[in-house]
Amino acid sequence: MKRSAWTVAIALALSLGWAPRLVAEPEPIPVIDLHVDLPYQNGYKGASFSEGSGQFRARELLRAGVVGVVLPLFVPKDTKPSGRTKAELLSSYFRTFTELGRTPPYQMPGCVARPFAVETWLSFEGAEPIEPEELEIQSWVLRGVRVFGMIHTEANTFGGSSGTGQGNRGLSARGARFAELVFRAGGIIDVSHTSDRTTDDLIGLAREHGGRIIATHSNARALAPHPRNLTDAQLRAIGELGGVIGVNFHGRFLEPKSGEGSLDDVVRQIRHIARVAGPQAVAIGSDFEGGIRPPAALKTELGYQTLARRLETEGVPRAQVVSYLSGNARRVLCPEKAQLPSSRN
Ligand SMILES: [Zn+2]
Question: What is the Å distance from ligand 1's center to 285 Cα?
Answer without folding.
Answer: 10
